[in-house]
Amino acid sequence: MRIAERAVYAMSITPFDAHGELDEALLRAHLRFLSAGGVGVFVCSQGSGEGDLLTGAEKLRIYEVAVEELHGAAPVCAAGIGLAGATAGIEALARGAAERGVDAVYILPPRPNPVPPRPQEVERYYRRLIEAVDCPVILANNAFLAGYTLPLPTVITLVEAYPHLEAVLLVDANPSLLAQYVRAVGERTLVLTGVVSGILQAHAVGAAGVLCMEANVVPDLVPAIWSALEAGDLTAAERRYRRLMELSTVIARYGNPRSLKEALRAIGRDGGHLREPYLPLPGEEFADLERSLREAGFGGGPDDRGRSA
Amino acid sequence: MRIAERAVYAMSITPFDAHGELDEALLRAHLRFLSAGGVGVFVCSQGSGEGDLLTGAEKLRIYEVAVEELHGAAPVCAAGIGLAGATAGIEALARGAAERGVDAVYILPPRPNPVPPRPQEVERYYRRLIEAVDCPVILANNAFLAGYTLPLPTVITLVEAYPHLEAVLLVDANPSLLAQYVRAVGERTLVLTGVVSGILQAHAVGAAGVLCMEANVVPDLVPAIWSALEAGDLTAAERRYRRLMELSTVIARYGNPRSLKEALRAIGRDGGHLREPYLPLPGEEFADLERSLREAGFGGGPDDRGRSA
Amino acid sequence: MRIAERAVYAMSITPFDAHGELDEALLRAHLRFLSAGGVGVFVCSQGSGEGDLLTGAEKLRIYEVAVEELHGAAPVCAAGIGLAGATAGIEALARGAAERGVDAVYILPPRPNPVPPRPQEVERYYRRLIEAVDCPVILANNAFLAGYTLPLPTVITLVEAYPHLEAVLLVDANPSLLAQYVRAVGERTLVLTGVVSGILQAHAVGAAGVLCMEANVVPDLVPAIWSALEAGDLTAAERRYRRLMELSTVIARYGNPRSLKEALRAIGRDGGHLREPYLPLPGEEFADLERSLREAGFGGGPDDRGRSA
Amino acid sequence: MRIAERAVYAMSITPFDAHGELDEALLRAHLRFLSAGGVGVFVCSQGSGEGDLLTGAEKLRIYEVAVEELHGAAPVCAAGIGLAGATAGIEALARGAAERGVDAVYILPPRPNPVPPRPQEVERYYRRLIEAVDCPVILANNAFLAGYTLPLPTVITLVEAYPHLEAVLLVDANPSLLAQYVRAVGERTLVLTGVVSGILQAHAVGAAGVLCMEANVVPDLVPAIWSALEAGDLTAAERRYRRLMELSTVIARYGNPRSLKEALRAIGRDGGHLREPYLPLPGEEFADLERSLREAGFGGGPDDRGRSA
User: Fold this and answer.
1) A193 neighbors A210 (Cβ within 8 angstroms)
2) Sign (positive/negative) of CA torsion B39, B43, B45, B50?
3) Where are the alpha helices (DSSP H) in chain B?
4) Taking 80 as the threshold, does the pLDDT of residue A302 lie above it?
5) Which of A40, B174, D33, D121 has the maximal Cβ count within 10 Å?
6) Residue B41 and residue B38: Cα distance in Å, rounded?
7) Tens place of pLDDT for every residue, chain C, 309 residues?
């Protein structure tokens, strides 16, 4: 399934059981929940997906499960590839993901060290990884995770060199930079934003879509905003956007991925356990989270659970 | 004139002559240019208005000129009050502004030092300054200038204590914080944003308006975005927003206030000279600025100069 | 008096009376206290000297008082010149300082805006100010205050162009940069550090001295460290250095300049009042400061008040 | 061998062959080179040791090799444990290191995410890891790598709870914080600094030693500084310290670990290849590095190679 078939993507959580082992049944149920809401999925992402806490073998199994579960229903993007580690190991993981049939591999910049790598090292790294796979590639320019931003000329060079580099995801609060990306590479590749709070301006400047974590709790809310924008229905888009800001405020309070799993529990769903070093919220904090979600009208009961607007 | 009568405000430049002296004639002409575009004005602002380079006497004269020139045509807000200096001197300046008949005084947080002041010092400072004037007050929460952010509880306390605190301006890239401000104090006071690139989300979450520097070059562009949003015309709002992003990208290239005055020159208007330490752009940089504005369709000739959409 | 005649300089506090007016008698007494401890003085410095809260006229009066009081006893350096404001106004202040007979003017980089000025603007600014005076000049490379660091090539250019640029003060935690400064300009000018905690390494790499705020409370402690280093007496230098770290820890707790004036009060001296927006410490915080100083052996009584080692 | 038997530790490089595989022969030779210079070693450290690019199996093999090679000659500390990954996996690595007979395990704080973990998560993490091993533990408070600093009360709690927590390593530029650590836990545990440029002040405030990367190129230089300090020979300590600053300046130019391996090549030693994403320096940069080292007198020929003073 082409990644262009969805405008909104969720960084899926990774459910664990009480012993910290991957809970495949919960994962499958959660992926179906996401897909039914109209979003594509990124699995094993660093933050929401606890990707940093997964071994390579676990990631490959998760890619496999996601492809089995969602094939044809929603695009599956393999996240958790890049950032830390030797390029050779990252390359093997990317190949493994492609072999398992994911719809795209999402490649983070190299960050072996708090000191940013040199520009030629970044370019060499991306060339090796993009050349290692035949499936579509999504390039991440994520300064929040990497600690530095990719220069636009490097992004242009890579986009022009590799037709299967089908999307570029930019995580940057400045919408004029997103507009520059659309102008520079928007005719050859999809330009996505990883800043969901900027969805209105992303649509305005011509971005192709958005990646977010909020969809884990209310999968259809962000797609509903995007649909309203596509339909030119500003009133509906703004009303749903205000809902999104309420949800984001609550989720941000205790940090990602804690809040996501706890919020699912609060609204009566099961996202599984966290893996250490993450710990569940103490009782009074969970109560605050539950109350905040209820007061904001999220998950008040079976009828409106997950309803977006 | 009530500040609520305009949704968009410009941080006006301050024109100087070749000797670095205030050029009142150019200032008057520029203020009329802004007012004709449908914006209210902030004069003596730190960045665009070179407020940091003005003496107290010069600021008072500028407030006076602005009131004379615009009285009844556009609200005049006295900026350049606060941040550096002893509270007693800031208080005298605020009183002087009020005496000259401005429609509001805009008060920046205290920043006598790169180390943020203590919370009780911030509250005491704002109480003294707000109590010093009878005219409407706009409180600034500007972490970009102050180096720290005001706690929301302090803002709530001040808003509840002083009815003439008629607006709070928030400079923060996070729209969920802006939404929290609207929820917390939006019924008692106007909530404005100082991040014009976030104008779409500001309107969505219920902010009352926006303060920007771009209006110095194209005064009617941002008001046209706001009008389209008010009218529910998403297509027009987005088209104009893309124009704004083009303008912002060009202006950001050489920094504020250099770019503003040079951009006015490039489109055939006269914003006067900069005051040192600022220097005019070297020839090839000015040529780049001029070419970029022309290619983006700003100020190509007398017919479309300043036309926004 | 040549600035080279002292290795240690104090950023003197500025005593105010209960109404926030300059207290000249206390200022004179404090300057004598400093001078007797063996340090030179910087008056009107931004932080410790509350320089940001002083008008230009007040600064000129303070330079005058300091010259009257200390002439020949300790070098007097005019601080509080630069950073904010128009270059023309800064130039007038520098000239005024020189006319009042200070032993050097200390010039901070331009910071009209949180966005750093352009390199040609910085160089032009310094050339204008250095050329404006005949007396010795101390150039400040203070990224803590300015928000950016001067490029070493610019410093070299200025040192080579102006023989009366007699010292360069570097505020940077990296001692290898200080060593580079000593190698690059140390034969033509004095290289001073503004990081007193790095005094041991500053002496090791060949710096000429140090500027500090701690001398306001115990004037002879830092000179005693420097003397021990000059004498090759490591044991004494280290013992005194540990005292300095204890003093710095206590002073840092409530921030500069609050802690300095409150610490003087705690040890039985009178540094005068703070000027708003600074407020005196609440009772329990003052009690904590007093107890900490007493436990560390500072100012326990008349016999050891101010004794350093 | 007790870790207290060395005051200076090197973060050893990890030599690779041309295919990016571990080169055990070069590793052994390098460890002997270090040991002969008088330093203890940390192997698999994140930066200098390219620890982030090593698999768990490779790390265990390196610990094994280091113990075989150095047992009794120099203390071997297992680094590269912590920071990224699930706590369970980190625990297994720490146990594996202990089983291979290292003299201590060095445990980095958790950093599964750019957002710092919660205090109870940090404490739980450290308790699990410290309890997992019987061998001595070195706790790292490294804000440079972790992005946050451990609160001193947490460090005190852990030191008091676990007698085999034999050292705390602080990476912080502020020497007064190091002095606070010495006062707070120095009687129960060794306090080490990871900021070699602060070695003079670390000795002065009573720290037990220093961890550095410079020893990879000139192993006996930092021990020679420490010995001079222990002997009270300030002149020798300062002369050697200036040498260290020269070395640090050159090494810092192209970043760690590139510079270390290239510097070894420049002085005629073999540190092996880098592993990607790191790339060797281009020719002209290597030439600059070689010339800088030669001009500074490092490795000019067989006679003075590695001589420190």
Assistant:
1) yes
2) positive
3) 24-36, 56-70, 87-99, 119-131, 143-146, 152-161, 175-185, 199-205, 221-230, 234-253, 258-266, 283-295
4) no
5) A40
6) 10
7) 999 999 999 999 999 999 999 999 999 999 999 999 999 999 999 999 999 999 999 999 999 999 999 989 999 999 999 999 999 999 999 999 999 999 999 999 999 888 899 999 999 999 999 999 999 999 999 999 999 999 999 999 999 999 999 999 999 988 889 999 999 999 999 999 999 999 999 999 999 999 999 999 999 999 999 999 999 999 999 999 999 999 999 999 999 899 999 999 999 999 999 999 999 999 999 999 999 999 999 975 443 434 444
Coil, strand, or helix at residue C169?
A: strand
Two tokens at B120? 């009780």
Closest Cα of chain D to A27: distance in Å?
A: 19
- Joined together, the tokens standing for residue D243 give 């040498």
- Tokens 């990890």 appear where? D14
Report CB contact under 8 Å: D200, C205.
Answer: no
Closest by CA to A172, choosing from A150, A188, A153, is: A150
| pLDDT per residue as tens digits for the range D42-98 | 999 999 999 999 999 999 999 999 999 998 999 999 999 999 999 999 999 999 999
Please choose, from the candidates C38, C35, C83, the residue with its C-alpha nearest in 3D space to the C-alpha of residue C59. C83
How sure is the predictor about D114, in pLDDT bands with cuts at 50, 70 and 90? confident
ipTM of the complex: 0.94
Which neighbouring-strand residues pair with B171?
B142
pLDDT at B299 over 80: no
D277, D275, D255: which is closest to D17 by C-alpha? D275
Look-up of token digits 């052994």:
D28
Cβ contacts of B176 on chain A, cutoff 8 Å: 197, 245, 248-249, 252
Cα gap A254→A251, rounded to integer Å: 7
> Hey, what's the torsion of the CAs at C99, C104, C108, C112, to 10 degrees?
0
Q: Report the residue from A117, A256, A277 with minimal CB separation from D125.
A: A277
Q: Compute, in degrees rounded to 10, the torsion defined by CA atoms C302, C306, C307, C308.
A: 160
Token pair recorded at residue C237: 């230098």
- Contact yes or no for D42/D49 (Cβ under 8 A): yes
Angle between helices B234-253 and B283-295 (to 10 degrees): 170
Q: List, in sequence order, every residue forming a beta bridge with D137; answer none if it has no partner.
A: D105, D165
The answer to whether D224 and D240 have CB atoms below 8 angstroms apart is: yes
Q: Residue D80, CB half-sphere, CA atoms under 13 Å: how many?
A: 36
As a whole number of angstroms, the distance between CA C298 and CA C288 comes to 14
Determine whether the interchain pair B205/A241 forms a contact, defined as Cβ–Cβ distance below 8 Å: yes
CB atoms under 10 Å from CB of D50, counted, come to 26
How far is C-alpha B110 from the chain's CA centre?
18
DSSP letters spanning D213-280:
SGGGTSTTHHHHHHHHHHTTBHHHHHHHHHHHHHHHHHHHHH-TTHHHHHHHHHTT----B--TT--P
Q: What angle do CA D123, D128, D134 make, to 5 degrees?
A: 125
Of residues A55, A88, A145, nearest to D89 (C-beta):
A55
A116 pLDDT above the threshold of 70: yes
In total, the C-beta contacts within 8 angstroms joining chain B to chain C are 101
DSSP D136: -
For residues D205 and D191, give the distance between their C-alpha atoms in angstroms, rounded to a whole number: 10
Is some CB atom of chain C closer than 8 A to the CB atom of D1?
no
The per-residue pLDDT for range A120-149, each reduced to its tens digit, is: 999 999 999 999 999 999 999 999 999 999
Q: In Å, how far from its chain's centre is CA B228?
A: 21
Interface test with C, best of B113, B129, B285 (most C CBs within 10 A): B113
**pTM to 2 decimals?**
0.95
Interchain touch B–A (≥3 Cβ pairs closer than 8 Å): yes
Q: Which residues pair with C110 in a beta bridge?
A: C83
Residue D153 contacts residue D119 (beta carbons within 8 Å):
no
**CB contact at 8 A, D234 and C233:** yes
